[in-house]
Fold:
Amino acid sequence: MDRADEAEAGPTPPIFILVHGTFAPDAAWTRADSPLATHLISRFPGANVRPFLWSGRNSHRARLAAGAELQQILVDTAAETPDAPLLLIAHSHGGNVALYALGQSPVSHRVFGLVCLATPFIACQARELSSLFSYLRWSLPLAAGFLAALLPLFLVIVVAPNDLILGSVGAALLTLYLSIAVAIRAQKGVDGRLRRWAERKQRAIIEELSPVPVSVPVVSASVTMDEARLWLRSAAAAGELPATIWRLAFPALRAIFILLALLLVPAAIYDFETGGHGGKDLIWLSVLFFLLPALSLIGALAWLRALLPWAIRGNRWVFGGEGIFHNFLVSISATITPSCARRFTHLDVNVSAGMGLRHSRLYSDENFIRNLGEIVGSIITRQSRQGEPDPETGTPSA
Structure:
């Protein structure tokens, strides 16, 4: 080893832990004879290259479990070789696994750096729920009132069809507004409890899926025209479509409900003036052509908002297993920038032409492998000059 290599490698040869991505357990690029591993050993004589194998399942649960396992491996490795620099190189969702491992690791100060190759970093954001609760406050009492108001009309038409009860629509009108008043009163407590439950659930999901901030230097190499990134973005946009439709349709649906409630007033007057002959027909037409379609549309939109994102995003080909409540309460997307990284460098990489997806060509591209060796070397040199990071703060000492 010459002096330059010795200075770059530090007092002890580095240990590289290679983390594969989704659907790639025992990936060939993590093996000791892969082009990437061979170059690292040649570039840093004496370096130890170790693969970290996990299930590779595309689910949040699998990535969280793999992060906990990798965290323990870092602890064990740091205890075995207390002087060796530790570096992580992760591909695709392996980068998220590595961030989960580093977030709460007691030995993160021993990790000199993390290099992420084409990683779609998980980002979580609480959905805006005010329109949903506004819908509950307006629509449910109105719907309950309308359904209760049908009872007097039902009794007239079904029980005593030959007896024209004067003011039957007036009775329906009275039942409507009494039912709305009771429903609003009963809903006040339910609305507050439901909102608090939804907000607690949002915080719990975001806290679980968002990596803890890390002070380890993170380098992210993104492939130009990465197929996986384009696929995830398209799926995320499709998953957001129901929420967009809901925001646009809700004001119109609310206006329909209010219009129907006000329509009962002239209907009751008309019913009274015609001796009970006309108002009921107007009410039934309103129910048939306005109320029932509006209720059906609201129900369809509610299910669409919950089930369509789950069907599009919550499967093994997109973000993994996301429950209906995940999609209903939290927006999950993929970014090229990890929000948890305090020290972050981003690189755009053009890979050479070849077989297979661009997303998976980084670790076999000769030019990038050489550049990766230089990147890792600069990380080791910089971290070695700064000294070992303080275990309490996780920041390098001067």
